[in-house]
Amino acid sequence: MTVNDDWLDPFEEEESVPGPSPAVERLRRRRRRSQPLLPWWLLAIGGVVVVLAIVLLWVWAAKAMKESKEPPTIAVTPTFTYVLPTVTLVPTDVLTPLPPTNTPIPATPAPPAEITVGSWVKVVGTGDAQLSFRAGPGLENVRLKIVGDGAVLKVLDGPHESDGYTWWRLEEYVDGQAGVVGWAADGFLVPTSAP
Q1: pTM value?
Q2: Is residue 4 part of a domain?
Q3: Domain containing residue 136
Q4: Could you give the number of structural domains in the chain?
Q5: Is the pLDDT of residue 169 over 90?
Q6: Nearest by Cα to 191 from 170, 177, 162, 161
């Protein structure tokens, strides 16, 4: 019996072709392991796509939240109800007007024409300078206080001539209470009625 060995021939030829040496095979395996599975530019594009997807999802979620916070618009249509007032007449007593009475108005006392002891004076026209209250008649005396326009003062003593001015001893009244007593020149004083 003869054996047909034709079908084995191709395998034998392959085995007879010399293959790479085992050292070359190891080098090829190492290179395959050290190379990345994907090229670097493909990884970069994938990363950009992932970042863009995250940003788009975030924008979409923010917009959805904003839209959900806005209250719904409700159309309101006013309706009017007409109410007619009713008038009820009630009889009233007839009042007879009284004749007017002449009630005398008390006369305001006229201020005195000149400054005298026991009268009242008002400070006027001092402007920014204001009126100085001094310890005695004359410019060399100590200034006790400065009195502004509109102050009403009672005359206690005077007149006394000094430094070319006529001086009066005055008492200040604040809210009806006696206050500082001092001397002042009459250039800014006018007679007035009691407060």
Answers
A1: 0.44
A2: no
A3: 120-192
A4: 2
A5: yes
A6: 170
